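FAQ
Q: What does a multi-component entry look like?
A: The components come first, one per line:
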Amino acid sequence: DAKTTQPPSMDCAEGRAANLPCNHSTISGNEYVYWYRQIHSQGPQYIIHGLKNNETNEMASLIITEDRKSSTLILPHATLRDTAVYYCIVRVFFGGGSQGNLIFGKGTKLSVKP
Amino acid sequence: EAQVTQNPRYLITVTGKKLTVTCSQNMNHEYMSWYRQDPGLGLRQIYYSMNVEVTDKGDVPEGYKVSRKEKRNFPLILESPSPNQTSLYFCASSRGQARSPLHFGNGTRLTVT
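Then the predicted structure of the entire assembly, as tokens:
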């Protein structure tokens, strides 16, 4: 079972910030939060990841709550090309076995509208 | 350009006819993995490899084989394909550390009739 909970869908106006929430209440201390997105049926694309601190890169920002039980992915200025399914994933510490697996849930379908 | 390349992109075959889907990465990654994606079931791991000659089963390995004879290649082999293996397949690679993101290929859509 996926260890994260995301809303199934969200809409966002073009040019506005898209804030995608994720709950991961059972996260443990050595687990990272990863975000990927999948546009249509292309391969999932890495966006950003973090452990405790907020992170920012050229694509997005990741805000992790202090208790690490939830996070928010922020796309600061959404465009039509950002329409995709966004997956929030908790990655178990890499050490072999299924610990190397990324458990993808159903994600959030983000629709950016003109 | 750093990438994971899968071939073919589309494949239609018949039950029982052996096939191989190739996967190659040019990033010198130790870790490689195969996933299948089905409607309503999300992405599920088939097999993974921590390094050359080291492979292990994921969550849904039945009916599949893999090999890792060299670092860059990780082919997926279906010895006797069946219709329930009709799916969208993704290969992925990473440096194999907890902080290292997976890089995915563009997928192979397989139909077994």
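Q: Is there any commentary attached?
A: Sometimes. For this entry: The first strand of chain B starts at residue 4 and ends at 7.
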